[in-house]
Specification:
Length: 196
């Protein structure tokens, strides 16, 4: 399929950090995502007390919503500013500690213990560090990952989920010749080849 000029596009860590610093975060939504609300039953599949993963979480409001339902939420985000804003905007006390396995990484955990946000590159994570998940809410991660890194991203995600997990993925559909991304266009055929 034709993904236009996006194939070689690379957005650097510095560019993402700058988006947060400049407040250029149009991808952040102040309200819960309507598709998560619509498909919540699918994500939870009648289960309670799930471990739910938010890749490239930013300061997603859904993290607190799901934690308040009794689930354990784990996110990963490159921007420490985003992580700290999440806790402050929800008036959640937290503690911060280094992640010994990842140089320079920090883990921010709500004092209640049900929300843990890792501040590092997602590619530094592994199941030996964060464990495995029952569910994934991928609202803007796959479409934000550089096109050349998708295979690596998908392999990591497959590695982080339990066998009977649920993965909710939101993508965007548009003509990739008219927009350089992110969000990047990920055709359905590529999603099938990445995740099987």
């Amino acid at each position: 399929s034709d993904v236009g000029s996006q194939k070689e596009r690379v957005v650097t860590k510095e560019e993402w950090l700058e988006k947060w610093e400049m407040g250029n975060i149009g991808f952040h939504k102040e309200q819960r995502h309507p598709l998560l609300q619509k498909y919540l039953d699918v994500l939870l599949n009648g289960r309670s007390g799930l471990r739910i993963f938010f890749p490239l979480c930013g300061k997603a409001v859904e993290m607190k919503w799901l934690a308040d339902m009794g689930h354990s939420v784990v996110g990963v985000e490159i921007s420490e500013q985003a992580v700290k804003e999440f806790f402050s905007e929800h008036s959640l006390p937290y503690c911060e500690e280094p992640v010994p396995e990842i140089s320079g990484a920090k883990m921010f955990q709500s004092t209640s213990g049900n929300i843990s946000l890792y501040c590092c590159s997602i590619y530094d994570l592994s199941s030996s560090i964060v464990g495995k998940f029952d569910a994934v809410w991928d609202r803007g991660a796959l479409v934000a990952v550089n096109p050349g890194d998708r295979q690596c991203y998908a392999s990591l995600m497959i590695n982080l989920v339990e066998k009977n997990s649920t993965y909710l993925l939101v993508t965007v559909s548009y003509d990739p010749n008219k927009h350089k991304g992110p969000p990047f266009y990920v055709p359905e055929s590529e999603i099938k080849s990445l995740f099987g």
